[in-house]
Amino acid sequence: MSQPGPDAEADEPSDALEESERRAFVISSALHGQRLDRALAQLIPEFSRSYLQQLVEEGAVQVQGRTIRKSATSVQAGQAGEIELRPTPQSQAFRPEAMVLQVVHEDEHLVVIDKPAGLVVHPAPGHWSGTLLNGLLARDAKAAGLPRAGIVHRLDRDTSGLMVVARTRQTMDALVRMIAAREVSRQYLAMGHRTWSGPASRTVEAPIGRDPRNRLRMAVVDLTHNAGKPARTRFERLDSHDRGCLVRCTLDTGRTHQIRVHMASIGHPLVGDDTYGGAPAAGLHRQALHAFRLAFSHPVTGQALELRSPPPPDFADAVRAWGLDYNRG
Q1: Residue range 212-240, pLDDT digits in tens
Q2: With left for phi above 0 and alpha for psi between -120 and 50, is residue 272 left, alpha or beta?
Q3: Backbone angles phi, psi at 122, to 5 degrees
Q4: Burial level of 96, CB count in 10 A (0-12/13-18/19+)?
Q5: Calpha distance 122→132 (Å, rounded)
Q6: Which of 17, 83, 149, 155 has a CA-to-CA distance to 223 between 20 and 30 Å?
């Protein structure tokens, strides 16, 4: 399958095996001197090279009766071998898994899901099953015919709230274009540490890229020295006390961890977000971020849609524990 544009996290595997299969091969003169993985990709073209490389590393390939574990090993014309084509976690990741999903809007073109905190959106290392994608595949037969089951944007695992998912390719392509053109309004509630500083309304426009000191994190970066992309977030203080603040956030761009990074950059890391300087507080142990509003013109009918999601109990309890008020801003 082809891949959609924004917010892609991992390549979707095309290799799906239910059971192991052993297959013999002989290296032809045309493949003499090639790397083993390149030769296998020519000999077994229905499987991806990355999948075949993984099998090599797992010891599933023998050449001349000897197990080879390095994909870069050169092969010689006339060598005989055997490969065990095994199911892998990746090859089995894109499978239906029944789960309860909270739907706030649905029609023949799209569905809007209220994602709970803790649910991973896409399969990835460490989370090859139990993802929103798996649930969508089980819920809607159309999803199997779409890249990423129709998912056009994502929320972090521990962020709760609204996500729009396409049910047709036409709708998916339109939503991708709309998100890129900033025609989909996405608003979040966030709880940050410390009393709010600066004006009640402020815009942070700071590029985001991989943290050069820790590649597992994102950071505000200097584009003259580091790779990154422009990012813009609008913040509105709703309430603020000595311990922290409650903020409404509007995304103008959709970079990875954008709100989390921008909040940290202005001295208000999210409650529960230890990746970016926050800490558990007010009974909340996940990042205090909830996508509460999603608004856009329906890409097919043109109908104006505005969906809202109340904060989940853990978020609402934390707001009350700190005596913050949604309506005071």
Answers
A1: 999 889 999 999 999 999 999 999 999 99
A2: left
A3: -115, 145
A4: middle
A5: 7
A6: 155
With cut-offs at 50, 70 and 90, classify the pLDDT of residue 109: very high
Lowest mean pLDDT among 80-89, 260-269, 304-313: 80-89
Residue-wise pLDDT tens digits, 164-182: 999 999 999 999 999 999 9
Query: Quick one: tokens of 81?
Result: 């071998």
CA pair distance 73, 54, nearest whole angstrom: 14
What angle (nearest 5°) sits at the alpha carbon of residue 206, between those of residues 202 and 210? Answer: 140
Instruction: Give the up-direction half-sphere exposure of residue 220: CA atoms within 13 A in the CB hemisphere.
Output: 16
Query: Would you call 150 helix, strand, or coil by DSSP?
Result: helix
List phi, psi (to 5°) of 116.
-80, 155
Reply yes or no on whether 7 is catalytic: no
pLDDT digits (tens, 9 = 90+) for 10-24: 333 344 455 678 999
**Band (45; pLDDT cuts 50, 70, 90):** confident
Tell me which of 15, 156, 239, 314 is the catalytic residue. 156
Q: Would you say 206 and 220 are in contact if contact means Cβ atoms under 8 Å apart?
A: yes
Burial of 166 (0-12, 13-18, 19+ CB in 10 A): buried
pTM: 0.77
**Looking at residues 141-160, what average pLDDT do you find?**
93
Note whether 293 and 185 are within 8 A (CB): yes
Collapsed DSSP state (helix, strand, coil) of residue 262: helix
| φ and ψ at residue 35, rounded to 5 degrees | -60, 150
**Residues near 103 by Cβ (< 8 Å), separated by ≥ 6?**
111, 112, 113, 114
Alpha helices in 5-113 (DSSP H): 36-43, 49-57
Helix (H, G, I), strand (E, B) or coil at 170: helix
Mean pLDDT estimate for the chain: 91
